[in-house]
Structures are given as structure tokens and as C-alpha cells.
Amino acid sequence: MADVVCIGAHPDDVEIGMGGTVAGMTAQGLDVVIVDLTDGEPTPCGTHERRMAEAVRAADILGASRRTLSQPNRYLFDTVEARTELAEVLRELRPRVLFVPYPEDAHPDHVAAASIARAGRFYAKFTKTDMAGEPHYPARVYHYMAVHMRLVREPSFVVDISQTLDTKLTALGCYGSQFNANERNRGIIPMMEDAAHMWGTLIGVSAGEPFFAQEPIGIRSVTDLV
């Protein structure tokens, strides 16, 4: 069982897009599971074993647990098989809230992951099916942004991560094969820090992470607003 499931195409996607928010949720006692659709390999400086070890360390730092599914990196497509594999995990974990990739991106895997996540959510509620587990439909789904395009979109809400930004950056630092060994990517972590400060200025705090909703968002009290 989990309160929240965060879905990514690759290990490090969730950390990039919403690592501070994950750290904040787990600090509040929520059970958060990160589900990577692929192992993220091959990459120029990584191996399956190294990437899995990095992913486990990063999740531990955020206070979350992690699952890695069997879909192929670089060739991720929205198929019945991919939807079903994810749906069975959702039927097992039974989260109330899903966080999924932003659907617009240059990376085809990220676009496919957004589609698989939305469809997997729907598949998870099927009754007459051979899928394992009991039907379950997560109540809410939100998109986080970890994209390869230079996009600025109006967020539905921004989460204050002023207290957890350092935790996010530490978790990202676990991915040495991606952000240290690969010289072309060494500027990504500082870029993520700058982006967090930019989003934070929009809500009057030090650091933030943006999220996007396709449905209206309800709140119980205006005191919940920053």
C-alpha cells in the first residue's frame, strides 16, 4: 500500500521534477513509491547495476521506496503490455494520488510515459480482467516537469520546497553515472537548483516545484494556501 505513487520513464526523472516534493511528503509521514517504467540504460557512462544502485540510494535519501518495471529504455511505447504492467502495480499499491511526467517533451520516452501512466491509471480499475489484484482508481493525477525542452508553462500549483531543496540536490547527486561521469550533463544539477529558486519566487518562497492538473483542484481550507 502507498499514499502516493510517482511514475517516471527513467531513474532520476522523479528526482529532477519533484524530488523536493517527495522529500516533503515523506517527512510528513506519507508512504511514497517511485515507479520507474525502465531502468534507464544504456547510457554513455552507466550500467544496469550501477543505475539501480544509484536509484536505490536516491530514493532512500528522499525517504521513498522504488520499483523498476520491465519496459525498454529508448523504445518506450504506450502498449497494452506497458499499461497492464503499471496497472497491476497500482492495483497492488492502491495510491490515492499519482504524479506522472509532463506530456509535452522532446524525449519520446517521457511522452510515452505520460500516456502509459494515464492509461495505466484507467486500466487499474478494470473488473473483468486477467490482471492481478483488485480494481483501484487513484483519485488524483498531477504532472511534474522533467523535460528536455525549454518550456515555461503556467503551473496549476507550486509546492514550497525551501526546506527540502538540499535533500533533492543530494538525491540527484547519487546519479554519478548521469551527472558526474558524463561531462555534458555536469551542469544539470546546478540548473535544477536555479530552476527551483525561479519557481519559488512565483509564490514568495526560496524554492519551489511546479505541477500541472487537468482537472480542478479542491482545497478544504484557504489556510492551506501559501
Can you describe this structure?
This protein is of the alpha/beta class. It has one domain: Rossmann fold (3-Layer(aba) Sandwich), CATH 3.40.50.10320. Helices cover 39% and strands 15% of the residues. The chain is built from 7 helices and 7 strands; from the N terminus they run βαβαβαβαββαααβ. It has a 7-stranded mixed β-sheet with strand order 3-2-1-4-5-7-6, sandwiched between helices.
Keywords:
226 residues; 7 helices
| Helicity, as a percent range | 25-40%
Helix/strand order: EHEHEHEHEEHHHE
Tell me, rounded to a whole number, the average pLDDT.
Answer: 97
Strand content: 5-15%
- Count of domains: 1
CATH topology: Rossmann fold
The first-level CATH class name: Alpha Beta
Query: Within the largest sheet, what's the order of strands?
Result: 3-2-1-4-5-7-6
